């Protein structure tokens, strides 16, 4: 069988800070070993995809052509990505489609002809090579239903699994009205895990409350820190997950945790409480530096959390259980909604890029590579 040809979105950054997003014709070889070739039918634009597409870019003054965008990155952003200067990158973490060819491996052959979700890292293309182990058979589910079945669902499940492993029964989550945050809210209710949801607008708070959330805190209100501490006290949440990264989100959470812990101290200590407090940063919705203040003693940790290292540290039994749970809840607990559907050319128009680059809550785009 001959190679398959199709278009693929490529991101290239040069040393002078010029970034080019371009649809290129590519030859997809026959899969080997446990690989599969997927005809991509749907792929969401996630915040993690935007690092290679829009982060630090001057979108207003970019040059938009048919299937090609040339833009200038802010100097500090371009310098921070120096390792990829002149090294073209494929784009699109996850998506779904039909397996049209498979390597000789047993897992790959079992997927031939099936519709699957996958995480090829090249989902913004007409075809993609994927590892069969990282594919989820969708059965009767459509590609649109399965397109977002990996990154957000597995991340939300990963948060709860991480909390359980570290001995926690409640967590704090910032930017909680996001698609991922809504999934996490439903998971925590199902698992009996306490959850403190931090949002920035009242309509986001109402959204989560209508979905059964019992602790929602609005960061735009004057009593934000007091309300956050109260929610932490009621749930016992001394572990948090922060997708904002820049600014003081993690700092404020640690401060509120210390406020709760210090109130339970029977003796004063200049070093603060001994109660361990931890924040995981898992995103960079804000690019400014992370600010930490000496406001919560010395029993605290700020660390990074990424999905794929978490999965690599999980045993096969855990992985299979998580995958099965996602499959069973694709149209309920892990359901995703989309603001707009675009093809490969439409995703590279000025209007679309300036819209999805804002990463607004409830306004995710879905790419349909074959129209």
Structure report:
29% of the residues lie in helices and 27% in strands. The chain is an alpha/beta fold and 371 residues long. Helix 11 links the parallel strand 19 and strand 20. Helix 7 packs across helix 8. The model has no long low-confidence stretch (mean pLDDT 95).
Question: Quick recap of the structure?
Answer:
With 371 residues, the protein is an alpha/beta fold.
For the structure shown, list the relevant keywords.
single chain, 7-stranded mixed beta sheet, 29% helix, alpha/beta, 371 residues, globular, 11 helices, 6-stranded parallel beta sheet
Mean pLDDT: 95
Q: What is the alpha-carbon Rg in Å?
A: 22 Å
Number of beta-strand segments = 20
Question: How much beta, percentage-wise?
Answer: 25-35%
- Based on secondary structure, the structural category is alpha/beta
- In whole angstroms, the N-to-C terminal distance is 26 Å
Question: Which word captures the global form?
Answer: globular
**In DSSP terms, counting alpha (H) and pi (I) runs of 4 or more, how many helices?**
11
Helicity level, as a percent range?
25-40%
Give the helix/strand layout:
Blueprint: E1 4-13, E2 18-28, E3 35-44, E4 63-65, E5 68-72, H1 75-80, E6 89-90, E7 95-102, H2 106-111, E8 115-118, E9 127-131, E10 136-137, H3 143-146, H4 151-165, E11 170-173, H5 179-191, E12 194-199, H6 202-210, E13 216-218, H7 224-235, E14 239-242, E15 245-247, H8 249-263, E16 277-281, E17 286-290, E18 300-304, H9 307-312, H10 316-328, E19 340-342, H11 350-356, E20 365-367
Parallel strand pairs: 11-12, 11-14, 12-13, 14-16, 15-17, 16-18, 19-20
Antiparallel strand pairs: 1-2, 1-6, 2-5, 3-7, 3-9, 3-20, 4-5, 7-8, 8-10
Helix pairs in contact: 4-5, 7-8
């Amino acid at each position: 069988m001959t190679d398959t040809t199709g278009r693929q979105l490529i991101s290239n950054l040069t040393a002078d800070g010029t970034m080019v997003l371009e649809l290129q014709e590519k030859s997809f070889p026959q899969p080997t070993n446990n690989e599969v070739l997927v005809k991509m039918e749907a792929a969401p634009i996630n915040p993690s995809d935007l690092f290679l597409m829009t982060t630090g870019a001057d979108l207003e003054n970019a040059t938009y052509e048919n299937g090609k965008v040339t833009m200038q990155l802010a100097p500090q952003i371009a310098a921070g990505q120096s390792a990829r200067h002149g090294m073209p990158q494929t784009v699109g973490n996850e998506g779904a489609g039909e397996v049209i060819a498979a390597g000789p491996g047993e897992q790959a052959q079992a997927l031939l002809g099936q519709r699957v979700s996958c995480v090829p890292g090249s989902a913004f293309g007409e075809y993609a090579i994927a590892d069969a182990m990282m594919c989820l058979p969708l059965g009767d589910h459509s590609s649109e239903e399965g397109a977002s079945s990996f990154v957000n669902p597995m991340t939300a499940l990963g948060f709860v699994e991480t909390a359980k492993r570290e001995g926690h029964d409640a967590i704090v989550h910032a930017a909680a009205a996001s698609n991922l945050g809504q999934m996490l809210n439903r998971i925590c209710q199902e698992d009996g895990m306490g959850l403190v949801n931090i949002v920035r607008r009242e309509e986001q708070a109402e959204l989560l409350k209508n979905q059964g959330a019992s602790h929602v805190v609005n960061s735009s209100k004057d009593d934000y820190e007091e309300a956050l501490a109260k929610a932490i006290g009621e749930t016992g949440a001394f572990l948090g997950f922060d997708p904002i990264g820049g600014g003081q989100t993690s700092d404020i959470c640690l401060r509120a945790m210390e406020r709760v812990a210090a109130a339970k101290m029977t003796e004063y200590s200049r070093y603060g409480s001994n109660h361990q407090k931890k924040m995981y940063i898992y995103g960079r919705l804000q690019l400014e530096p992370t600010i930490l203040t000496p406001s919560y003693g010395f029993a605290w940790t700020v660390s990074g959390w990424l999905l794929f290292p978490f999965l690599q540290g999980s045993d096969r039994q855990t992985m299979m259980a998580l995958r099965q749970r996602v499959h069973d809840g694709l149209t309920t607990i892990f359901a995703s909604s989309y603001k707009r559907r675009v093809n490969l050319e439409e995703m590279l128009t000025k209007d679309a890029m300036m819209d999805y680059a804002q990463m607004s809550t409830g306004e995710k785009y879905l790419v349909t590579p074959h129209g």
